[in-house]
Write a structure and sequence with these properties.
Blueprint (H helix, E strand, L loop, with lengths): L5 H23 L4 E5 L2 E5 L7 H9 L16 E4 L2 E5 L4 E5 L18 H17 L1
Antiparallel strand pairs: 1-2, 3-4, 4-5
C-alpha cells in the first residue's frame, strides 16, 4: 500500500481470488451469502451445515500474502462497516453502528467541503437526536 495504484491492484487481485478460489470455497461450504466492501467481508451461513472455522482456514490458505481475521457474532449481533446487524428468529434488524471513539464534530460551515456533505451532516444529527 502507499502507491496511488495500490488500491486498484488490490481490488483486481481480490476479484481474481473471488472468481477462482473463493467461489469454490463458498460452494463447498454451503455459504448462503458473501458480501465484500474493499477489505471487509460479511459471510452469512447456517451453522447447522457450515463450520465457520473451516471457512476461515480455507480463506487463509487461498494466498500466503493474505491473512483473514474472523469476527463472530456476539449476543446475536455483529458490527459490519457502519451497521449493527442483529439476528432474531424471524428477521435481521439493521441499525447504525457508531464506534466508541466517534466524536460529534461536524464539518465547519466555512470549509471547502461540498454543500451536500454539510447538509448530510445536519440531516444526520437531526435524525440521531430524534432517536435518542
Amino acid at each position: 500500500m502507499g502507491a496511488p495504484t495500490s488500491s486498484i491492484f488490490s481490488e483486481i487481485y481480490l476479484q481474481f481470488l473471488e472468481n477462482t478460489k473463493i467461489y469454490d470455497i463458498l460452494q463447498k461450504t454451503r455459504v448462503e451469502g458473501y458480501f465484500r466492501y474493499v477489505d471487509d467481508i460479511l459471510i452469512v451461513y447456517n451453522e447447522n451445515f457450515t463450520d465457520v472455522n473451516e471457512i476461515h482456514n480455507m480463506f487463509n490458505s487461498v494466498s500466503p500474502d493474505l491473512n483473514f481475521m474472523l469476527e463472530q457474532e456476539q449476543n446475536n449481533g455483529l458490527n459490519f462497516l457502519d451497521l449493527t446487524i442483529k439476528k432474531t428468529p424471524n428477521k435481521m434488524i439493521f441499525d447504525i453502528y457508531r464506534k466508541p471513539a466517534t466524536s460529534d464534530n461536524i464539518i465547519p460551515n466555512d470549509s471547502c467541503h461540498p454543500s451536500e456533505h454539510k447538509l448530510a451532516t445536519i440531516r444526520y444529527f437531526i435524525k440521531w437526536n430524534r432517536q435518542v
